[in-house]
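Structure tokens please, single chain.
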Amino acid sequence: LQKCKELNMASSIGISIYETEQIEKFINIGGLDVIQLPWSLINRKKSNIDLINKLKDANIAVHIRSIFHQGLLLSMPLKLPDNFIEYKKSYTDFCKIANSVEKRIALSIASVLRDVPGALIIGADNVDQLKIIIKANKMAYDLPNKYVKKSRKIWENMPDHIIDPRKWIINS
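Here you go.
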């Protein structure tokens, strides 16, 4: 990969990780320009903010994905695994603070950017969704910190089987 960069076949070299505990390992290996990792109101570990700061100190860009936690912060799935009781309660409480999709998007964006300012990777299924995300993104910068703190409090202490999508068991 370094050779490709030297030959101008690539401008950056990066990796995508699931577990922020891997950050330390990749900083030590060297040669990376970007690390992409998940971060959301649900998947937010204060202890990992120090690791992210180490990335910045090592001049490695941080790109954040899954800020809506695979959509779980935006709407209640029609079919929910039996072991998602904690999610259901938290989602109901979250909707009391953010009673529209736009507000839930704005709070999700605001929370992430206040932890890890940088590049966000956000997906949309269609143009209408993209318009809503753009509108909510503008709202995110004006949200009072008390709403972000309330939202974070609601989602803190989620169990690992909800935090990590690789562990989800989907009912059929």
